[in-house]
């Protein structure tokens, strides 16, 4: 976990330095964001569905899947009354950051390290509802200036939504023993491997170009308290009250305790919704998770 956090901060620092040296200019940053959302992220989504599971495993994972859908519903309900007093652009980022965490890049390796291969499998299923929400309800938060018909069209035709459909199809095919040709699979893997460094380079560049005086503002501290402590605590209490399997509880809580997703900054830049604030959300919540994640692992 510590190594992962160090890796994140090093990649952010590289992005910061590249922006300082004017290697990543505003134009380059915009182009990288478009490239990531249009190609790299869709490939990463498709790649994440390449799981080798049996129908028996699927039934075992079903409880985690249901719990994850319920957790996304909890986040949606929280968003109905949280952040409404904030500035509109900040509120968009805060609501997205409440809906979506960095449970993919950050959460899956931690689940594997703490709970083994079964933990990784459960974490993979936990992420399915989040991916659906992040590219439907989450994406719609940023397309605020369009009618609902146009918003639905933009969401449905977004490359990441299309990638979700392809990913589900690949998962079902693999359960029946049908695999992608090796050349296609390796191409998708190579492109998806660029996802994390490019996202964090862009966020680092955004941090360099934004003011740092309100980095630890009251709003930011409130968000981190909600995202890293309050929401996972609610998940823990509810799941324990239903006497669910221990490993399912552990995975759902630890994945709920992850910092803000890097996609929040990418989408904020793409749709011009205060990307500087979104990049600070990613940085500060990841920084605070240095202290909260070990606490949750100890409690669980």
Give a short overview.
With 300 residues, this protein is an all-alpha fold. It has 14 helices and no strands.
Explain what you see:
The protein is globular. The chain is 79% helix and 0% strand. Helix 2 runs parallel beside helix 8 and helix 2 packs antiparallel against helix 10 (195-208). It has helices at residues 2-20, 26-48, 55-81, 88-99, 103-134, 137-142, 148-156, 159-175, 182-192, 195-208, 218-241, 246-256, 263-270, 275-299. The chain is mainly alpha-helical and 300 residues long.
The coarse overall form would be globular
pLDDT averaged over residues: 84
Rounded to an integer, what's the Rg over CA atoms?
Answer: 18 Å
Termini distance?
A: 16 Å
Q: Report the biggest beta sheet as strand number plus sense, adding barrel if it closes.
A: none
- Percentage of residues in strands: under 5%
Which structural traits does this protein have?
mainly alpha, 0% strand, 14 helices, 300 residues
């Amino acid at each position: 976990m510590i190594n992962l956090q160090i890796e994140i901060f090093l990649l952010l620092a590289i992005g910061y330095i590249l922006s300082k040296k004017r290697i990543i200019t505003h134009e380059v940053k915009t182009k990288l964001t478009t490239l990531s959302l249009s190609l790299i992220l869709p490939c990463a989504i498709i790649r994440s569905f390449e799981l080798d599971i049996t129908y028996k495993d699927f039934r075992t994972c079903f409880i985690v899947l249901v719990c994850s859908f319920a957790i996304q519903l909890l986040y949606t309900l929280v968003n109905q009354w949280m952040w409404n007093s904030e500035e509109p652009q900040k509120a968009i980022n805060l609501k997205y950051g409440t809906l979506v965490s960095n449970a993919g890049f950050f959460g899956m390796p931690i689940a594997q390290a703490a709970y083994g291969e079964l933990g990784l499998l459960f974490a993979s299923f936990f992420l399915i509802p989040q991916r659906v929400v992040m590219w439907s309800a989450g994406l719609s938060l940023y397309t605020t200036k369009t009618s609902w018909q146009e918003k639905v069209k933009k969401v449905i035709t977004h490359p990441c939504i299309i990638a979700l459909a392809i990913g589900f199809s690949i998962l079902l095919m693999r359960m029946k023993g049908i695999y992608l040709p090796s050349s296609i699979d390796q191409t998708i893997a190579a492109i998806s491997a660029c996802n994390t460094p490019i996202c964090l380079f862009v966020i680092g560049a955004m941090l360099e170009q934004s003011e740092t005086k309100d980095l630890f503002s009251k709003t930011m501290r409130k968000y981190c308290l909600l995202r890293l402590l309050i929401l996972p605590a609610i998940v823990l209490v509810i799941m324990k009250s239903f006497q669910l399997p221990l490993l399912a509880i552990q995975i759902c809580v630890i994945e709920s305790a992850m910092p803000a997703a890097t996609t929040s900054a990418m989408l904020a830049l793409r749709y011009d919704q205060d990307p500087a604030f979104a990049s600070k959300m990613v940085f500060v919540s990841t920084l605070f998770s240095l202290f909260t994640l070990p606490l949750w692992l100890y409690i669980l």
